[in-house]
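Table S2 (continued). Query chain:
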Amino acid sequence: MKQSFTYITIHAMMLLVLLVRPGGVLAQQVDFGLYAEEGITLTPLVPDELDFGDRMSGEGVFSIDLQEEEAVVIEIEGVAYLDVTVTVTPPTNNFILLQGNEDFLGDENRRIPLTVKMAYYNQGQKNIDIPTAKQQAVEVSGHMATFQIRRRPGGPPGPPPTPPHAGYTPPTATAYLFLYGNINVGAVNAGPYSGIIDVHVEYSGY
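Corresponding output:
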């Protein structure tokens, strides 16, 4: 018989800003915000910005890989015995746009393709060494993944967990989400390029 748990959604927004101009570069600013509801906590670690650095018009593909320090790291703390589903939604049509203007979606000189990738680590430890977690992380194909907050060992299932009730606090554990990817800078016009990445984390139903 299936049990149902409270549906909890965490919404995060990532703003990517890229400044480019032919023959030179300008400064770059990247903002990242998190919004969490009851029962689960998201904590951005350093770095808390997906920062592609200063790029030049026509430069081509530039990547931030999982193992690099620039990959965004987010702690997901929740009930240890529950699973979560993480959904990452890239900007519209996978473009960051000049001044974030949606009117430029059809203009190849005012848009930059963005590929967003994700991976997770769910051994259950808090304050894990991040390079170690990245080496052991599970890379995800696509933009959605369901995994255990604390990975359970193989073999037969254990006894059912104690259901939440007054006076009882279920044990918690910490998983780690990594966000990284690449941009492909064509012969675009100079200026600030931005877009929103939405990250939704919710407990999976049982």
